[in-house]
Amino acid sequence: MRYAIIGSGAIGTALATQFSRKDINVAIANTRGPESLGNLVERLGPSIEPTTIREASKAELAILAVPFGAVSNVAKAFGKSRPRIVVDATNAIDFPSFTPTELGNCDSSSVVADAFDGSIIKKAFNTLPAQVLEDSPEEIGLRRVLFLSGDSERASNEVSELVDQLGFSPVYLGKLTQGGRLQQFGGPLMLEIFLRQD
Predict the structure, then answer these.
(1) How many domains does the chain have?
(2) Does residue 104 carry a pLDDT above 90?
(3) Which domain CATH number covers 145?
């Protein structure tokens, strides 16, 4: 499967580090272009491929690791191409108050789903602080839990498999309307860290 990370900030870099640690090939893109990713690629090695957002849209699974306010712009930059699966790693935060963005009765992943019409949306990689997400998820006999939610059983299995390959212990929370609300910023699982015995 072809993977891509959209965003090279703290979360995108943490994810790229995990892909590199397990020698899993992944493309990474940001709004500044592939030439801005040279230092990151040099540090993490050949499994990390810098690319454009348009090219990253051709991946089968793309992880969206950008500020929530940039979601619609990324969708526009994708053009007509859409990944089969978009993993929403965003958090809807209002700065500088650091409070949840007011979305009415809508959950944040539903906003992402509207922007990426045609893709299967999964929620994952957003509840852990960037530094924790970047650290090795494996300790002696234990693995760090990583929550995910979404509506397609097949896609959920594929995301769970990736989470497992990266060294985390996947925990499926159900559909976006249920699990997504638990995971989103302001939800009960935000910044919670759990370890599970293999």
Answers:
(1) 1
(2) no
(3) 3.40.50.720
Domain that holds residue 8: 3-197
H helix intervals, 66-151: 71-78, 108-115, 130-134
Contact 87, 61 (CB under 8 A): yes
> DSSP label at 191?
T
Task: Retrieve residue 8's tokens.
Answer: 């090279």
CA–CA distance, 170 with 71 (Å, rounded to integer):
25
pLDDT at position 99: 76
Q: Of 86, 94, 130, whose CA–CA distance to 112 is shortest?
A: 86
Integer Cα distance of 13 and 8 in angstroms: 5
pLDDT at 96 over 90: no
Two structure tokens written together for 135: 């650290």
Percent of the chain with pLDDT over 70: 100
- Residues 85 and 106: their CA atoms lie apart, in Å, by 21
pTM of the model: 0.95
Which residues, 6 or more positions from 96, have their beta carbon under 8 angstroms from its beta carbon? Answer: none
Sequence-distant contacts of 100-108: CB under 8 A, at least 24 apart: 100/184, 100/185, 100/186, 101/68, 101/185, 107/176, 107/177, 107/180, 107/181, 107/184, 108/68, 108/180, 108/184, 108/185
Q: CB count, 10 Å around CB of 167?
A: 15
